[in-house]
Write a structure and sequence with these properties.
The chain has 11 helices and 7 strands. By secondary structure, the chain is α/β, with parallel strands linked by helices.
């Protein structure tokens, strides 16, 4: 227990140090990529993330799960191992889908709108670190909601996380991208995201921060200030799929 506490304190101190340094340090700009296939060719394989375990706790064993923007399948593989889910992953990147298939997953190059046209539905639909990459996120989320029989899981990076506030205080825009600034098209704080879902007539969601400043569980007590990646779940009210407007247009998505 002492070792875990000391390790946690160290990493939290590093996080605070990076936040303060970010007030004066210029961001690292990676090479601009034109397609998500090119993007994924430059990405290291995905690994276990804290948000996976939060989602896994809300997915009963043997459920059907759709992972939208599945990337290389890291999360779907985790859910399959932990909960024996019947999982399907979709992504517009053939490179990412090929990686997911090499993990032994049912992954397809397909858009969310095209999948809606098939009439398929799933117990749980997950979009992890996806909505911030999509211009028409409203249509995207409504399509996902229509496919979910029990719950919809959404995760996003919190623009109100304290390091981003410090950068704004120093007159600089927050840095949230992995490779290049054009990755993210939409930005939300926790209350903004909840209000946005309400504007789409989705139920009031459960909110948890999966990481951030974790010392003393600050990220759980004040997720909008100390939470970095946020997990939100508006649960459905019945097992019947809801109707929503026509399927969305094809968009570029990625984990």
């Amino acid at each position: 227990m002492l070792k875990r506490t000391l390790v946690g304190a160290y990493f939290n101190a590093v996080e605070v140090g990076h936040a303060v340094a970010g007030m004066v340090r210029a961001p690292a700009y990676g090479r601009v990529v034109d397609t998500y296939d090119e993007y994924w060719r430059g990405r290291a394989p995905g690994g276990l993330q804290p948000r996976f375990e939060i989602i896994e706790a809300g997915v009963p064993r043997g459920s059907s799960v759709l992972d939208v923007g599945c990337g290389d399948g890291a999360m779907l593989e985790f859910l399959h191992t932990a909960r024996a889910v019947k999982g399907v992953g979709i992504d517009i990147s053939a490179e990412a889908v090929a990686r997911a298939c090499r993990r032994g997953l049912d992954a397809r190059v397909q858009t969310l709108g095209d999948l809606r046209l098939t009439g398929d539905t799933f117990d749980h639909v997950v979009m992890s670190e996806v909505v911030e990459h999509v211009a028409d996120a409203e249509r995207f989320v409504l399509d996902a909601w229509a496919l979910a029989r029990r719950s919809l899981w959404l995760t996003f990076p919190n623009i109100a996380y304290f390091p981003h506030r410090l950068r704004l205080l120093s007159g600089k825009f927050p840095v949230q991208w992995v490779v290049f600034p054009g990755e993210h098209l939409r930005f939300w704080s926790v209350p903004d995201f909840a209000a946005w879902l309400a504007s789409l007539s989705l139920p009031s969601p459960r909110v948890r921060a999966s990481n951030g400043l974790t010392f003393g569980r600050l990220h759980r007590a004040w997720p909008n200030l100390f939470g970095n990646q946020i997990v939100i779940c508006p649960r459905t009210r019945s097992s019947a799929p809801r109707r929503s407007p026509r399927p969305s247009r094809p968009t570029m998505t990625s984990r």
